[in-house]
Specification:
alpha+beta, 8-stranded mixed β-sheet, two-stranded antiparallel ribbon, 18 helices, signal, MAB21L/cGLR
Length: 535
Amino acid sequence: MSVHYTLNLRVFWPLVTGLCTALVCLYHVLRGSGSALAEPPDGADGGFPLLKVAILLLLGYVLLRCRHVVRQRFLPGSPRLGGHSAFSTRHFREPGLGILLESYYEHEVRLSPHVLGHSKAHVSRIVGELVRAGRARGSPGPIPGGALALAFRGDFIQVGSAYEQHKIRRPDGFDVLVPLRLPPLVALEPRSLGAEPELAPAFRGCFVAALKAPPSPSGASGGHWLRNCKPFADGFCVDVRGRRHLSATLVLRWFQSHLQRSLATVRYSLEGRCRVSLTPGGLEQPPTLHILPCRTDYGCCRLSMAVRLIPAVHLGDGVFLVAPPPPPFPSGPLSEFPGDLRAEALWGVNTARQEQKLLSCLQERAPPGACYLKCLQLLKALRDLGARGLDPTAATQWGRILSSYVLKTALLTVLLRQGAPAQGWEEAHLGECLEELVQFLRDCLLQRHTLFHCVLGPGGAAAEVGSLPKVLREATPVDLLAAFDRHARELAAARLLSTWRRLPQLLRPYGGPRYLVRCPPPRNQRTQGFPEDEP
């Protein structure tokens, strides 16, 4: 990864003033030691011009600082929290602010394509060996093998920001779906919980999956099928309203155990390339594979990486049920869960394939120089800047409300509302585009109080992404902010506006116009629209 160096003006000018003062003092010391040899005529002070220069530099620095303070505190049209004036374009009319954004992006946000490509390739090799070993081992646990065993399908699907070209800072975290193969005698009947009136809003984005007999030309009776698949139902299912449902909790427990056994199989073969370990996530998080560089690895990209391995059950058309349900849905004790439902039967739904198709569709229709993904990356960096100074609990809540998935959904929603091709998203209007996204998020938190999933439900982007399973097309729209109460949303909106108002001060330490010459050219000068996928 390339290293960029910037000059901090807050340190530079005091350093210059101090250096000039030191030179004056040194001059007077040397002059005093030689005063016996040469005395200035008529009492003239030969050091006065140099001292005058040092004093003028000091006064100039003080005046510049005073001008900056007056400009920030007393400039007319200062935004106020909660009003639309908070989104005036004053920031981006200030000279150099757009260049500050570019400098911050190049120094702190943009990933090196070289390092990202190497990291993704390394993760693909390690996870591929682990999944192949898991498929070869068969199924341990309640069903040791046979026609009713749960097993790895043998492939894996890379999802998340690293594979959608909007990851920021370091390629040290990845998400991978590991599809599971159900027994041939078992089929699923998924159902959305969005229409459950007694269910808390936070759980209406979850799904349950009842067992059913697959279509059979022999016409076997239901009782015969139930007897045949009883071992699988006893090991991986729970009763919900009189029917057997696939349990996300039991599947996740089996998945973690199977991964541990598979890792023991391949650990020796990986010793020469890296050190690997697996951290179980319990019942609230998927397990995490930690990949550490080996001491004998002299590659150019020696990074420690964490890979979340997520068990997934394929529903069709590239849509998967995943365990456990991803944020922002709550986890842990479910005090508001109805008694006739089972918490361990809850599944989340992953539509990463459809979202990647949607991003690709926008890429094809994007005008030259579009900065969609760049705005999303800067929005994520703005969220990270806003988390500074918060206590751990508040920082966690802030990160959940403005999660990367929520921010990506906000961008897709804005682009889909504008139609295609969306205008005004050129690189030259980067500040205004970022401003529009912040304003949309503010409205979602304070006025609309909703931000709906961009794929699920009748109002989703099914026309843009092609076919979807019927259960997703007919699902109730999923509100990504439903898990948070009004007070939490208002606090997040206030923090977001406060961070936006302080954006120039937050970005200034990262460089300015004179330091951008060291940065590579903007991405839109190398490619049009979205950057190409890295190898």
